[in-house]
């Protein structure tokens, strides 16, 4: 009986030891993934509305998860302060003029804090510093804008339908023009007369150029054009 008790205690000890070992391994992997064992620094920023951002949410820089939201506190009726805990190894990349904004992880995912890169000439941010922020775009505002756009599109569509119906019925100037054969023929004759007039004008100008009384005038104009062209080419060469 004593031997059985000893064997039981040994098995129990081994089982508890294995359980503790597995627990430590799980804690280690979770801590590694969540960067719990790496050195941290803190920055803060203010928003008018955090749009569902929560403590424990991710902080991303250049699309990479670099920290978590440590605290969210209401300062007054128009300001909410957000404190983020970030890995120290990315501190040199975050600048004083970097800006924070709130985004979604996917279309309907959790809200996350994103930090822009900032300018290369700006010094790196210090531990505990506050950076500027962009106010997030609310999903409700986007839906409202889409609804307004859809309403306007519906109004335009209805007006176009009415206009096309009037044209088909021969109402209005465009409708009469498209459906009245006499008016269409008058328009064709008018355009033909304009073409003939234009052609006659070109022929008269060509004849005038060869007239000995006006030949000197047209040659003078051509020389002036040539002189202006050469001067423009000289000016262009000087500017090169």
What do you see in this structure?
- By secondary structure, this protein is α/β, with parallel strands linked by helices.
- It folds into four domains: 1-33; 40-137; 141-176; 180-239.
- It is built from five helices and eight strands.
- The chain has helices at 2-33, 139-168, 172-179, 181-210, 215-239; strands at residues 40-47, 58-61, 64-76, 79-87, 99-104, 111-115, 129-130, 132-133.
- It has an eight-stranded mixed β-sheet with strand order 7-1-4-3-2-6-5-8, with no helix packed on it.
- The longest helix is centred in the N-terminal third of the chain and has 32 residues, at 2-33.
- It is elongated, with a radius of gyration of 40 Å.
- The N and C termini lie far apart (108 Å).
- The mean pLDDT is 76.
- It comes from Flavobacterium ponti.
- Residues 42-118 form the Mce/MlaD domain.
- This is MlaD family protein.
- The chain crosses the membrane at residues 12-31.
- Residues 221-240 are annotated as: Disordered.
